[in-house]
Amino acid sequence: MADDPFLNKDNLITKSAKKSSLVFRMVVLMIVMVCGVYICSICLKQLNFQTKSRFLSIVIDKPCEPPNIEEWEVPYVHFPGPQTYSRAECRCNPVRFFAILSMQRSGSGWFETLLNSHINISSNGEIFSVKARKSNASTILDTLDKIYNLDWYSSAAKNECTAAVGLKWMLNQGLLKYHEEILEYFKRRGVSIIFLFRRNLLRRMISVLANQYDHAAKLLNGTHKSHVHSHHEAEILAGYKPFINTTLLIPNMREVEDMSTQALEYFKRTRHIVIYYEDVVKNRTKLEEIQDFLRVPRRNLESRQVKIHKGPLFKQVENWKDIEKTLKGTKYESFLYGNYRK
Ligand SMILES: *[C@@H]1O[C@H](CO)[C@@H](O)[C@H](O)[C@H]1NC(C)=O
Ligand SMILES: *[C@@H]1O[C@H](CO)[C@@H](O)[C@H](O)[C@H]1NC(C)=O
Ligand SMILES: *[C@@H]1O[C@H](CO)[C@@H](O)[C@H](O)[C@H]1NC(C)=O
Ligand SMILES: *[C@@H]1O[C@H](CO)[C@@H](O)[C@H](O)[C@H]1NC(C)=O
Ligand SMILES: *[C@@H]1O[C@H](CO)[C@@H](O)[C@H](O)[C@H]1NC(C)=O
């Protein structure tokens, strides 16, 4: 009977000791497992969060270091975080904001194609030619926010390495009307202004009239073009010679002058540069000055656009003699013969 295992005391004791140590081990194992799962889940959550924030470009990442610049420049340097895409490796490339303020037929279309040939410049075109965007100050400022946040989609939009972003804005597109709100915005957001004007207002007027005429006549195979890319097309458009109403000639030019003076007055307290179309045509080194102003690396800028009206003015209008008579002896006389090489 002594061999009966159930009656063997020793055997009983060792068995229960073994059992309790097994239970203990199980408990420890459970704790380790629970801890492991918990730590893993936290790790996963953090990883998930990081990837998400990278994709949504929420700026929880390290803030961007401002570049090595002078104190006065700090308000003009930005690190936009677009909502619609990530700036990827250029997240911390500084971006400057600009606006080209100009008037119709002053070479701003050509000027903008030159700027957009720069790999780091995005000038988004005449955004406020669309009525709804300029209907009141708040639609204007909302639109600007979108452009300067690099969320505006246009053919000019570059990759994530844009270093200067802006638009072309005509004085009569809500700019003078809402000048107070716009000035406040330009100053608050550190927007630099490029005024682009044309010196020869008579040439400008001929261009306006010819463009208006073509709007209806559509000389190029039934399509209206404001800008052309071939000499052939330019010749066809320049074939039309407008008739200028001499009664309205001087008042019209004065009105144009007043608008540009007004704009300069309203926005003179912004960081700005004044450029004349004729100077850029004559001297391409002007473009270097503009690139320096925008703080982008200097590059050779190019445009495929071809000038429409070339050569002496008397060949470009219907009633040259009347125009000559009207302007002789006035301060606008120089416009008659002012010419530039091309
Ligand atoms: C501005 O115009 C938009 C659209 O035209 C309109 O929805 C909005 O209420 C206007 N805001 C103000 C302040 O007038
Ligand atoms: C300009 O763009 C190039 C190419 O995308 C990029 O490598 C470079 O860093 C950009 N330069 C500046 C000043 O942002
Ligand atoms: C008009 O179309 C014809 C035929 O497609 C073409 O040969 C001609 O160059 C076009 N003219 C202009 C001004 O585009
Ligand atoms: C020129 O404009 C004035 C004022 O609008 C007008 O009275 C006049 O008839 C115009 N002259 C011509 C030749 O069209
Ligand atoms: C061209 O412009 C630059 C800078 O704007 C100026 O320094 C230079 O003298 C000009 N050259 C000529 C030939 O006008």
From TrEMBL:
UniProt superkingdom: Eukaryota
Keywords: Membrane, Transferase, Transmembrane, Transmembrane helix
One GO MF term attached to the UniProt entry: sulfotransferase activity
Broad EC category: transferase
Ranges where the Sulfotransferase domain occurs: 100-301
EC number of this enzyme: 2.8.2.-
TM helices/strands, residue ranges: 22-44
Pfam families, per the entry: Sulfotransfer_1
Matching InterPro entries: Nod_factor_sulfotransferase, P-loop_NTPase, Sulfotransferase_dom
Family to which the UniProt record says this protein belongs: Belongs to the sulfotransferase 1 family.
PANTHER family attached to this UniProt entry: PROTEIN, PUTATIVE, EXPRESSED-RELATED, SULFOTRANSFERASE
Name of the protein: Sulfotransferase
Organism encoding this protein: Dillenia turbinata
